[in-house]
Design brief:
alpha+beta, Heat Shock Protein 90, five-stranded antiparallel sheet
């Protein structure tokens, strides 16, 4: 398994597609076209959310690893989004689509970790943390497509 990690001041990640194409994607050679599309969308959309909502963050950590599964993670050192969770953990359709695109989508903030696996989720207590961690995982040989996922969300 190969693993890559890098840190950026949050001011240097404003162009999410450039970060994906120049920093992360080169670390993940030979992705299937559909998996690359899911990873591109998921990574850039999540990074955009971090930039828009991590108001006190000064740094972003970006990781990727490749083995049987592709794993992407984005972590900021801001105040975290746990204060924004409602009691039912409902999210807008954009976040719902991200959760459905990946085999596993994890959001960890404050003292809570929510692990989404398709239409199910598990809420677990974790040690307190500052900031928010997003982890996206998909099988390298997945046949899932962005079109399938967005079609499911729009129904």
């Amino acid at each position: 398994m190969t693993r890559f990690e890098t840190h950026f001041p949050i001011s240097n990640v404003k162009n999410q597609l450039r970060i994906w194409s120049q920093v992360i994607h080169p670390q993940l050679p030979n992705l299937k076209k559909n998996v690359a599309a899911i990873c591109t969308y998921g990574f850039t959309r999540t990074l955009r959310n971090v930039i828009e909502h991590a108001k006190t963050a000064t740094e972003v950590t970006l990781c990727c690893s490749q083995g049987a599964n592709i794993c992407l993670s984005i972590e900021d050192n801001g105040t975290g989004i746990s204060h924004g969770f409602n009691k039912d953990f409902t999210f807008d359709s954009d976040i719902q689509s991200l959760c459905k695109m990946f085999d596993r989508f994890i959001v960890e903030s404050g003292e809570v970790r929510i692990t989404f696996e398709q239409d199910n989720y598990i809420v677990e207590p974790v040690a307190p943390r500052n900031g928010t961690l997003f982890v996206m995982e998909i099988a390298q040989d997945s046949d899932r497509t962005t079109k399938e996922v967005f079609g499911d969300i729009q129904e």
